[in-house]
Protein: TetR/AcrR family transcriptional regulator
Organism: Peribacillus psychrosaccharolyticus
Amino acid sequence: MKKIKTETSEQSEVVELLAEKPTRTLGRKRDHTRDAKILEAAIDILADAGFDGMTMDMVAAKAKAGKATVYRRWSSKAELVQEALTWMNRSHLEMEHLPDTGTLRDDLLALLKPQSIEEGEKKLRVIMGLGSFLQQVELSEEGGIGIFDSWDTLNRELINRSVGRGDFPAHADVDLACQVIVSMAAFRGLVLHKAFDRHFYATLIDGILLPALKNPQIASNNKD
Amino acid sequence: MKKIKTETSEQSEVVELLAEKPTRTLGRKRDHTRDAKILEAAIDILADAGFDGMTMDMVAAKAKAGKATVYRRWSSKAELVQEALTWMNRSHLEMEHLPDTGTLRDDLLALLKPQSIEEGEKKLRVIMGLGSFLQQVELSEEGGIGIFDSWDTLNRELINRSVGRGDFPAHADVDLACQVIVSMAAFRGLVLHKAFDRHFYATLIDGILLPALKNPQIASNNKD
DNA sequence: TAAATACGGAACTGTAAAGTTCCGAAACTA
DNA sequence: TAGTTTCGGAACTTTACAGTTCCGTATTTA
Protein backbone atom coordinates (compact mmCIF):
# COMPACT_ATOMS: atom_id res chain seq x y z
CA MET A 1 0.00 0.00 0.00
CA LYS A 2 1.04 3.57 -0.72
CA LYS A 3 4.47 2.49 -1.88
CA ILE A 4 5.03 5.64 -3.90
CA LYS A 5 8.28 6.51 -2.17
CA THR A 6 9.51 9.92 -3.26
CA GLU A 7 13.09 9.14 -2.45
CA THR A 8 15.71 11.26 -4.16
CA SER A 9 18.74 9.22 -3.25
CA GLU A 10 18.42 6.79 -6.08
CA GLN A 11 17.85 8.52 -9.35
CA SER A 12 18.73 5.45 -11.30
CA GLU A 13 15.31 4.04 -10.50
CA VAL A 14 13.51 6.80 -12.38
CA VAL A 15 14.07 4.98 -15.61
CA GLU A 16 12.24 1.94 -14.34
CA LEU A 17 9.19 3.80 -13.02
CA LEU A 18 6.90 2.25 -15.59
CA ALA A 19 8.49 -1.14 -15.58
CA GLU A 20 6.29 -2.51 -12.78
CA LYS A 21 8.53 -5.42 -12.01
CA PRO A 22 7.84 -6.54 -8.45
CA THR A 23 10.41 -9.34 -8.86
CA ARG A 24 9.06 -11.25 -5.92
CA THR A 25 11.68 -13.96 -5.87
CA LEU A 26 14.04 -12.24 -3.49
CA GLY A 27 14.51 -12.32 0.24
CA ARG A 28 13.20 -14.46 3.07
CA LYS A 29 9.91 -16.13 2.35
CA ARG A 30 6.81 -15.27 4.26
CA ASP A 31 5.99 -17.89 6.87
CA HIS A 32 2.37 -18.69 6.26
CA THR A 33 2.06 -20.78 9.39
CA ARG A 34 2.05 -17.42 11.17
CA ASP A 35 -1.19 -16.46 9.42
CA ALA A 36 -3.21 -19.09 11.21
CA LYS A 37 -1.60 -18.28 14.56
CA ILE A 38 -2.53 -14.63 14.17
CA LEU A 39 -6.07 -15.33 13.03
CA GLU A 40 -6.57 -17.76 15.88
CA ALA A 41 -5.29 -15.22 18.36
CA ALA A 42 -7.66 -12.65 16.91
CA ILE A 43 -10.64 -14.98 17.32
CA ASP A 44 -9.69 -15.81 20.88
CA ILE A 45 -9.46 -12.17 21.82
CA LEU A 46 -12.62 -11.25 19.96
CA ALA A 47 -14.40 -13.95 21.92
CA ASP A 48 -13.64 -12.49 25.29
CA ALA A 49 -13.04 -8.83 24.67
CA GLY A 50 -15.16 -7.98 21.65
CA PHE A 51 -14.19 -5.99 18.61
CA ASP A 52 -13.52 -2.77 20.46
CA GLY A 53 -11.86 -4.48 23.35
CA MET A 54 -9.41 -6.16 21.03
CA THR A 55 -6.21 -4.29 20.31
CA MET A 56 -3.67 -5.08 17.65
CA ASP A 57 -1.03 -5.32 20.36
CA MET A 58 -3.04 -8.00 22.11
CA VAL A 59 -3.30 -10.00 18.92
CA ALA A 60 0.37 -9.69 18.11
CA ALA A 61 1.38 -10.58 21.65
CA LYS A 62 -0.91 -13.60 21.83
CA ALA A 63 0.38 -14.84 18.49
CA LYS A 64 3.95 -14.09 19.54
CA ALA A 65 4.32 -11.93 16.47
CA GLY A 66 5.45 -8.38 15.84
CA LYS A 67 2.83 -5.86 14.86
CA ALA A 68 4.74 -5.32 11.64
CA THR A 69 4.18 -8.97 10.84
CA VAL A 70 0.48 -8.50 11.35
CA TYR A 71 0.22 -5.34 9.27
CA ARG A 72 2.28 -6.92 6.51
CA ARG A 73 -0.66 -9.31 6.03
CA TRP A 74 -3.68 -7.18 6.81
CA SER A 75 -3.65 -3.46 6.31
CA SER A 76 -6.10 -2.67 9.07
CA LYS A 77 -7.87 -4.07 12.10
CA ALA A 78 -11.10 -4.29 10.13
CA GLU A 79 -9.44 -6.36 7.44
CA LEU A 80 -7.89 -8.69 9.98
CA VAL A 81 -11.19 -9.22 11.75
CA GLN A 82 -12.97 -9.75 8.48
CA GLU A 83 -10.60 -12.55 7.54
CA ALA A 84 -10.53 -13.97 11.04
CA LEU A 85 -14.29 -14.39 10.89
CA THR A 86 -14.08 -16.14 7.57
CA TRP A 87 -11.37 -18.36 8.97
CA MET A 88 -13.45 -19.13 12.03
CA ASN A 89 -16.29 -20.33 9.85
CA ARG A 90 -14.21 -22.58 7.68
CA SER A 91 -16.36 -25.64 8.06
CA HIS A 92 -15.09 -29.09 8.68
CA LEU A 93 -18.34 -30.64 7.65
CA GLU A 94 -18.16 -34.35 7.94
CA MET A 95 -21.22 -35.19 5.95
CA GLU A 96 -19.90 -38.68 5.46
CA HIS A 97 -20.47 -39.97 8.95
CA LEU A 98 -23.69 -38.32 9.96
CA PRO A 99 -25.36 -39.96 12.93
CA ASP A 100 -28.03 -42.45 11.88
CA THR A 101 -29.89 -43.79 14.86
CA GLY A 102 -33.19 -44.29 13.09
CA THR A 103 -35.04 -41.43 14.77
CA LEU A 104 -34.65 -37.73 14.15
CA ARG A 105 -34.69 -37.05 17.85
CA ASP A 106 -31.63 -39.13 18.56
CA ASP A 107 -29.85 -38.01 15.41
CA LEU A 108 -30.15 -34.38 16.44
CA LEU A 109 -28.97 -35.14 19.94
CA ALA A 110 -26.06 -37.15 18.61
CA LEU A 111 -24.84 -34.09 16.76
CA LEU A 112 -24.46 -32.22 20.03
CA LYS A 113 -20.96 -33.29 20.92
CA PRO A 114 -19.32 -31.59 23.89
CA GLN A 115 -16.65 -30.18 21.64
CA SER A 116 -19.16 -28.65 19.24
CA ILE A 117 -21.02 -27.05 22.12
CA GLU A 118 -17.89 -25.39 23.36
CA GLU A 119 -16.94 -24.21 19.91
CA GLY A 120 -20.43 -22.96 19.25
CA GLU A 121 -20.46 -20.90 22.41
CA LYS A 122 -17.15 -19.36 21.50
CA LYS A 123 -18.51 -18.38 18.12
CA LEU A 124 -21.51 -16.84 19.78
CA ARG A 125 -19.33 -14.78 22.04
CA VAL A 126 -17.40 -13.59 19.01
CA ILE A 127 -20.52 -12.47 17.20
CA MET A 128 -21.89 -10.91 20.32
CA GLY A 129 -18.76 -8.84 20.70
CA LEU A 130 -18.74 -7.70 17.10
CA GLY A 131 -21.16 -4.95 18.04
CA SER A 132 -20.23 -1.70 16.43
CA PHE A 133 -18.06 -3.43 13.86
CA LEU A 134 -21.15 -4.79 12.17
CA GLN A 135 -22.53 -1.29 11.94
CA GLN A 136 -19.37 -0.01 10.27
CA VAL A 137 -18.59 -2.83 7.92
CA GLU A 138 -21.32 -4.81 6.26
CA LEU A 139 -20.21 -8.28 7.13
CA SER A 140 -19.64 -10.36 4.04
CA GLU A 141 -22.68 -11.13 1.98
CA GLU A 142 -26.01 -12.34 3.23
CA GLY A 143 -26.19 -10.16 6.27
CA GLY A 144 -23.61 -11.91 8.31
CA ILE A 145 -24.74 -15.37 9.22
CA GLY A 146 -22.43 -17.99 7.82
CA ILE A 147 -21.33 -18.55 11.32
CA PHE A 148 -23.98 -21.09 12.01
CA ASP A 149 -23.96 -22.52 8.54
CA SER A 150 -22.03 -25.58 9.52
CA TRP A 151 -24.36 -26.73 12.26
CA ASP A 152 -27.40 -25.54 10.37
CA THR A 153 -26.46 -27.56 7.32
CA LEU A 154 -26.10 -30.74 9.33
CA ASN A 155 -29.40 -30.20 11.09
CA ARG A 156 -31.12 -29.58 7.79
CA GLU A 157 -29.64 -32.76 6.38
CA LEU A 158 -30.87 -34.84 9.28
CA ILE A 159 -34.36 -33.38 9.19
CA ASN A 160 -34.67 -33.75 5.45
CA ARG A 161 -33.61 -37.36 5.67
CA SER A 162 -36.23 -37.96 8.33
CA VAL A 163 -38.91 -36.29 6.23
CA GLY A 164 -37.75 -38.43 3.31
CA ARG A 165 -38.30 -41.52 5.43
CA GLY A 166 -41.89 -40.47 5.85
CA ASP A 167 -41.59 -39.61 9.55
CA PHE A 168 -43.18 -36.22 8.86
CA PRO A 169 -45.43 -34.68 6.22
CA ALA A 170 -43.62 -33.60 3.08
CA HIS A 171 -44.74 -30.01 3.54
CA ALA A 172 -42.95 -29.71 6.88
CA ASP A 173 -41.20 -26.37 7.19
CA VAL A 174 -37.64 -27.55 7.59
CA ASP A 175 -36.13 -24.08 7.24
CA LEU A 176 -38.14 -22.71 10.07
CA ALA A 177 -37.37 -25.69 12.28
CA CYS A 178 -33.67 -25.15 11.69
CA GLN A 179 -34.01 -21.49 12.52
CA VAL A 180 -35.63 -22.42 15.80
CA ILE A 181 -32.71 -24.59 16.82
CA VAL A 182 -30.07 -22.03 16.08
CA SER A 183 -32.07 -19.10 17.47
CA MET A 184 -32.77 -20.85 20.74
CA ALA A 185 -29.15 -21.88 21.12
CA ALA A 186 -27.94 -18.38 20.44
CA PHE A 187 -30.42 -16.63 22.70
CA ARG A 188 -29.83 -19.06 25.50
CA GLY A 189 -26.11 -18.54 25.35
CA LEU A 190 -25.97 -14.84 24.66
CA VAL A 191 -28.85 -13.44 26.65
CA LEU A 192 -29.76 -15.99 29.27
CA HIS A 193 -26.17 -17.06 29.84
CA LYS A 194 -27.21 -20.64 30.20
CA ALA A 195 -25.68 -23.67 28.60
CA PHE A 196 -27.32 -25.21 25.58
CA ASP A 197 -26.94 -28.66 27.04
CA ARG A 198 -28.33 -32.05 26.18
CA HIS A 199 -31.24 -31.79 28.59
CA PHE A 200 -32.46 -28.48 27.28
CA TYR A 201 -32.00 -29.59 23.70
CA ALA A 202 -34.08 -32.69 24.34
CA THR A 203 -36.85 -30.53 25.80
CA LEU A 204 -36.71 -28.30 22.76
CA ILE A 205 -36.85 -31.22 20.38
CA ASP A 206 -39.70 -32.97 22.17
CA GLY A 207 -41.71 -29.90 23.05
CA ILE A 208 -41.28 -27.77 19.96
CA LEU A 209 -39.47 -29.26 17.00
CA LEU A 210 -41.12 -32.63 16.63
CA PRO A 211 -44.66 -31.32 17.24
CA ALA A 212 -44.05 -28.55 14.71
CA LEU A 213 -42.75 -30.93 12.10
CA LYS A 214 -45.64 -33.30 12.71
CA ASN A 215 -48.11 -30.46 12.19
CA PRO A 216 -50.62 -31.61 9.54
CA GLN A 217 -51.51 -28.00 8.65
CA ILE A 218 -49.68 -26.36 5.80
CA ALA A 219 -48.11 -23.29 7.29
CA SER A 220 -47.77 -20.28 5.01
CA ASN A 221 -44.52 -20.09 3.10
CA ASN A 222 -41.86 -18.49 5.19
CA LYS A 223 -38.77 -18.04 3.05
CA ASP A 224 -37.67 -15.06 5.08
CA MET B 1 -15.09 6.50 40.23
CA LYS B 2 -11.63 7.18 41.59
CA LYS B 3 -12.88 10.16 43.57
CA ILE B 4 -10.28 9.82 46.29
CA LYS B 5 -8.75 13.25 45.73
CA THR B 6 -5.70 13.72 47.91
CA GLU B 7 -5.95 17.50 47.91
CA THR B 8 -3.99 19.40 50.52
CA SER B 9 -5.26 22.90 49.85
CA GLU B 10 -8.26 22.80 52.16
CA GLN B 11 -7.37 21.62 55.61
CA SER B 12 -10.39 23.31 57.17
CA GLU B 13 -12.59 20.55 55.89
CA VAL B 14 -10.81 17.92 57.88
CA VAL B 15 -12.88 18.75 60.93
CA GLU B 16 -16.13 18.11 59.15
CA LEU B 17 -15.09 14.84 57.61
CA LEU B 18 -17.55 12.87 59.66
CA ALA B 19 -20.28 15.48 59.68
CA GLU B 20 -21.83 14.37 56.38
CA LYS B 21 -24.05 17.42 56.01
CA PRO B 22 -24.74 17.91 52.33
CA THR B 23 -27.19 20.75 53.10
CA ARG B 24 -28.96 20.33 49.83
CA THR B 25 -31.34 23.25 50.15
CA LEU B 26 -29.14 25.80 48.50
CA GLY B 27 -28.70 27.04 44.96
CA ARG B 28 -30.48 26.46 41.69
CA LYS B 29 -32.49 23.26 41.60
CA ARG B 30 -31.54 20.45 39.31
CA ASP B 31 -33.83 20.27 36.31
CA HIS B 32 -34.88 16.65 36.18
CA THR B 33 -36.55 17.01 32.83
CA ARG B 34 -33.00 17.08 31.48
CA ASP B 35 -32.45 13.53 32.75
CA ALA B 36 -34.93 12.05 30.36
CA LYS B 37 -33.64 14.13 27.47
CA ILE B 38 -30.12 12.87 28.08
CA LEU B 39 -31.16 9.25 28.51
CA GLU B 40 -33.24 9.42 25.37
CA ALA B 41 -30.35 10.92 23.45
CA ALA B 42 -28.11 8.16 24.74
CA ILE B 43 -30.53 5.48 23.57
CA ASP B 44 -30.86 7.07 20.15
CA ILE B 45 -27.13 7.19 19.68
CA LEU B 46 -26.64 3.70 21.06
CA ALA B 47 -29.16 2.48 18.53
CA ASP B 48 -27.29 3.70 15.52
CA ALA B 49 -23.69 3.91 16.64
CA GLY B 50 -23.33 1.24 19.29
CA PHE B 51 -21.66 1.52 22.67
CA ASP B 52 -18.22 2.21 21.35
CA GLY B 53 -19.45 4.47 18.60
CA MET B 54 -21.26 6.62 21.11
CA THR B 55 -19.33 9.49 22.61
CA MET B 56 -20.31 11.61 25.55
CA ASP B 57 -20.03 14.68 23.36
CA MET B 58 -22.58 13.21 20.98
CA VAL B 59 -24.98 12.56 23.82
CA ALA B 60 -24.56 16.00 25.31
CA ALA B 61 -24.93 17.66 21.92
CA LYS B 62 -28.04 15.67 21.01
CA ALA B 63 -29.62 16.47 24.35
CA LYS B 64 -28.52 20.12 24.05
CA ALA B 65 -26.76 19.77 27.35
CA GLY B 66 -23.26 20.48 28.54
CA LYS B 67 -21.02 17.57 29.33
CA ALA B 68 -20.78 18.84 32.89
CA THR B 69 -24.53 18.45 33.14
CA VAL B 70 -24.22 14.86 32.06
CA TYR B 71 -21.37 14.01 34.40
CA ARG B 72 -23.16 15.70 37.30
CA ARG B 73 -25.77 12.95 36.97
CA TRP B 74 -23.73 9.94 35.93
CA SER B 75 -20.11 9.58 36.84
CA SER B 76 -19.12 7.57 33.78
CA LYS B 77 -20.21 6.47 30.37
CA ALA B 78 -20.86 2.98 31.68
CA GLU B 79 -23.16 4.30 34.38
CA LEU B 80 -25.05 6.44 31.92
CA VAL B 81 -25.54 3.55 29.55
CA GLN B 82 -26.59 1.29 32.38
CA GLU B 83 -29.33 3.68 33.40
CA ALA B 84 -30.30 4.44 29.82
CA LEU B 85 -30.95 0.75 29.29
CA THR B 86 -33.08 0.55 32.40
CA TRP B 87 -34.95 3.61 31.27
CA MET B 88 -35.47 2.13 27.84
CA ASN B 89 -37.04 -0.93 29.36
CA ARG B 90 -39.37 0.91 31.65
CA SER B 91 -42.44 -1.01 30.73
CA HIS B 92 -45.71 0.53 29.91
CA LEU B 93 -47.48 -2.72 30.50
CA GLU B 94 -51.09 -2.18 29.83
CA MET B 95 -52.40 -5.40 31.22
CA GLU B 96 -55.84 -3.85 31.41
CA HIS B 97 -56.58 -3.73 27.73
CA LEU B 98 -54.94 -6.86 26.42
CA PRO B 99 -56.15 -7.84 22.99
CA ASP B 100 -58.98 -10.37 23.15
CA THR B 101 -59.91 -11.59 19.72
CA GLY B 102 -60.97 -15.03 20.79
CA THR B 103 -58.02 -16.89 19.29
CA LEU B 104 -54.48 -17.02 20.57
CA ARG B 105 -53.15 -16.54 17.06
CA ASP B 106 -54.82 -13.21 16.57
CA ASP B 107 -54.14 -12.08 20.11
CA LEU B 108 -50.43 -12.61 19.65
CA LEU B 109 -50.46 -10.82 16.32
CA ALA B 110 -52.48 -7.97 17.78
CA LEU B 111 -49.71 -7.37 20.26
CA LEU B 112 -47.35 -6.65 17.39
CA LYS B 113 -48.44 -3.09 16.76
CA PRO B 114 -46.49 -1.10 14.17
CA GLN B 115 -45.31 1.17 16.93
CA SER B 116 -44.10 -1.73 19.05
CA ILE B 117 -42.33 -3.22 16.05
CA GLU B 118 -40.47 -0.02 15.46
CA GLU B 119 -39.66 0.30 19.12
CA GLY B 120 -38.64 -3.32 19.28
CA GLU B 121 -36.27 -2.94 16.39
CA LYS B 122 -34.71 0.07 17.99
CA LYS B 123 -34.19 -1.91 21.17
CA LEU B 124 -32.62 -4.70 19.20
CA ARG B 125 -30.26 -2.29 17.50
CA VAL B 126 -29.31 -0.96 20.90
CA ILE B 127 -28.54 -4.42 22.23
CA MET B 128 -26.74 -5.29 19.04
CA GLY B 129 -24.46 -2.31 19.48
CA LEU B 130 -23.79 -3.05 23.14
CA GLY B 131 -21.11 -5.50 22.10
CA SER B 132 -18.08 -5.31 24.30
CA PHE B 133 -19.98 -3.39 26.95
CA LEU B 134 -21.87 -6.53 27.90
CA GLN B 135 -18.60 -8.32 28.38
CA GLN B 136 -17.23 -5.63 30.67
CA VAL B 137 -20.25 -4.93 32.84
CA GLU B 138 -22.54 -7.67 33.96
CA LEU B 139 -25.77 -6.12 32.90
CA SER B 140 -28.49 -6.00 35.53
CA GLU B 141 -29.31 -8.94 37.72
CA GLU B 142 -30.31 -12.43 36.74
CA GLY B 143 -27.90 -12.66 33.86
CA GLY B 144 -30.57 -11.66 31.43
CA ILE B 145 -31.22 -8.24 30.10
CA GLY B 146 -34.78 -7.67 31.04
CA ILE B 147 -35.25 -5.95 27.75
CA PHE B 148 -37.68 -8.56 26.63
CA ASP B 149 -39.45 -8.90 29.94
CA SER B 150 -42.27 -6.59 29.02
CA TRP B 151 -43.18 -8.36 25.82
CA ASP B 152 -42.56 -11.76 27.35
CA THR B 153 -44.96 -11.06 30.18
CA LEU B 154 -47.74 -10.10 27.82
CA ASN B 155 -47.18 -13.14 25.64
CA ARG B 156 -47.28 -15.41 28.66
CA GLU B 157 -50.51 -13.81 29.78
CA LEU B 158 -52.17 -14.36 26.42
CA ILE B 159 -51.04 -17.94 26.15
CA ASN B 160 -52.08 -18.81 29.67
CA ARG B 161 -55.49 -17.33 29.07
CA SER B 162 -55.85 -19.41 25.95
CA VAL B 163 -54.81 -22.56 27.77
CA GLY B 164 -57.32 -21.64 30.46
CA ARG B 165 -60.02 -21.50 27.81
CA GLY B 166 -59.20 -25.07 26.95
CA ASP B 167 -57.70 -24.29 23.54
CA PHE B 168 -54.64 -26.34 24.46
CA PRO B 169 -53.78 -29.16 26.86
CA ALA B 170 -53.15 -28.00 30.40
CA HIS B 171 -49.65 -29.46 30.32
CA ALA B 172 -48.61 -27.18 27.45
CA ASP B 173 -45.14 -25.78 28.00
CA VAL B 174 -45.89 -22.08 28.07
CA ASP B 175 -42.43 -21.08 29.23
CA LEU B 176 -40.78 -22.77 26.33
CA ALA B 177 -43.24 -21.30 23.87
CA CYS B 178 -42.50 -17.82 25.17
CA GLN B 179 -38.80 -18.48 24.89
CA VAL B 180 -39.26 -19.41 21.26
CA ILE B 181 -40.94 -16.14 20.43
CA VAL B 182 -38.35 -13.96 22.07
CA SER B 183 -35.41 -16.02 20.88
CA MET B 184 -36.53 -15.96 17.28
CA ALA B 185 -37.17 -12.23 17.39
CA ALA B 186 -33.80 -11.52 18.92
CA PHE B 187 -31.84 -13.79 16.63
CA ARG B 188 -33.59 -12.47 13.59
CA GLY B 189 -32.76 -8.92 14.49
CA LEU B 190 -29.34 -9.38 15.97
CA VAL B 191 -27.79 -11.96 13.72
CA LEU B 192 -29.84 -12.13 10.56
CA HIS B 193 -30.51 -8.41 10.46
CA LYS B 194 -34.01 -8.97 9.27
CA ALA B 195 -37.21 -7.41 10.49
CA PHE B 196 -39.47 -9.33 12.83
CA ASP B 197 -42.55 -8.36 10.86
CA ARG B 198 -46.12 -9.49 10.89
CA HIS B 199 -45.64 -12.00 8.09
CA PHE B 200 -42.77 -13.76 9.71
CA TYR B 201 -44.49 -13.76 13.07
CA ALA B 202 -47.58 -15.34 11.55
CA THR B 203 -45.43 -18.07 10.02
CA LEU B 204 -43.81 -18.70 13.36
CA ILE B 205 -47.11 -18.88 15.17
CA ASP B 206 -48.74 -21.18 12.65
CA GLY B 207 -45.75 -23.35 11.92
CA ILE B 208 -44.21 -23.68 15.36
CA LEU B 209 -46.05 -22.21 18.32
CA LEU B 210 -49.56 -23.50 17.83
CA PRO B 211 -48.46 -27.01 16.83
CA ALA B 212 -46.15 -27.15 19.83
CA LEU B 213 -48.85 -26.02 22.23
CA LYS B 214 -51.29 -28.48 20.74
CA ASN B 215 -48.85 -31.31 21.26
CA PRO B 216 -50.68 -34.06 23.20
CA GLN B 217 -47.40 -35.52 24.47
CA ILE B 218 -46.11 -34.40 27.82
CA ALA B 219 -42.72 -32.98 27.13
CA SER B 220 -40.12 -33.42 29.81
CA ASN B 221 -40.00 -30.62 32.33
CA ASN B 222 -37.87 -27.81 31.02
CA LYS B 223 -37.63 -25.22 33.79
CA ASP B 224 -34.21 -24.11 32.55
C1' DT C 1 28.63 -13.00 -0.12
C1' DA C 2 25.56 -9.25 -1.05
C1' DA C 3 20.93 -7.54 -1.69
C1' DA C 4 16.33 -8.22 -0.38
C1' DT C 5 12.75 -9.56 2.41
C1' DA C 6 10.97 -11.80 6.58
C1' DC C 7 10.91 -12.16 11.53
C1' DG C 8 9.90 -10.51 16.79
C1' DG C 9 10.17 -6.60 19.43
C1' DA C 10 10.06 -1.96 20.78
C1' DA C 11 9.73 2.94 20.16
C1' DC C 12 7.28 6.43 18.05
C1' DT C 13 3.31 9.43 16.02
C1' DG C 14 -1.29 10.95 15.50
C1' DT C 15 -5.87 10.99 16.82
C1' DA C 16 -10.06 10.25 19.17
C1' DA C 17 -12.54 10.31 23.17
C1' DA C 18 -13.27 9.98 28.45
C1' DG C 19 -13.33 12.86 31.98
C1' DT C 20 -12.24 17.64 34.24
C1' DT C 21 -12.36 22.42 34.74
C1' DC C 22 -13.70 26.94 33.86
C1' DC C 23 -16.83 30.38 31.98
C1' DG C 24 -20.90 33.69 32.08
C1' DA C 25 -25.65 33.40 32.94
C1' DA C 26 -29.76 31.79 35.39
C1' DA C 27 -32.27 30.29 39.46
C1' DC C 28 -32.89 29.38 44.15
C1' DT C 29 -32.41 30.41 49.42
C1' DA C 30 -31.36 32.68 53.60
C1' DT D 1 -28.42 40.87 47.81
C1' DA D 2 -24.95 37.66 48.68
C1' DG D 3 -23.80 32.92 48.51
C1' DT D 4 -24.66 28.58 46.26
C1' DT D 5 -25.85 25.47 42.79
C1' DT D 6 -27.58 24.86 38.26
C1' DC D 7 -27.31 25.46 33.28
C1' DG D 8 -25.04 25.13 28.21
C1' DG D 9 -20.79 25.56 26.19
C1' DA D 10 -16.02 25.31 25.39
C1' DA D 11 -11.27 24.54 26.44
C1' DC D 12 -8.34 21.53 28.51
C1' DT D 13 -5.79 17.11 30.22
C1' DT D 14 -5.01 12.39 30.03
C1' DT D 15 -5.14 7.99 28.22
C1' DA D 16 -5.53 4.39 24.93
C1' DC D 17 -4.88 2.59 20.69
C1' DA D 18 -4.31 2.28 15.34
C1' DG D 19 -0.88 2.47 12.42
C1' DT D 20 4.30 3.45 11.24
C1' DT D 21 9.05 3.02 11.59
C1' DC D 22 13.25 1.23 13.04
C1' DC D 23 16.23 -2.27 15.12
C1' DG D 24 19.03 -6.61 15.15
C1' DT D 25 18.60 -11.06 13.35
C1' DA D 26 17.28 -14.91 10.22
C1' DT D 27 16.37 -16.69 5.67
C1' DT D 28 16.34 -16.82 0.76
C1' DT D 29 18.05 -16.02 -4.01
C1' DA D 30 21.37 -14.44 -7.40
Q: What stands out?
A: Residues 1, 25-29, 55-57, 67-68, 71, 75-77 of chain B lie near DNA strand C (CB under 10 Å from a C1'). The first helix of chain B runs from residue 33 to 53. Confidence is low (pLDDT under 50) at residues 1-21, 139-144 of chain B.
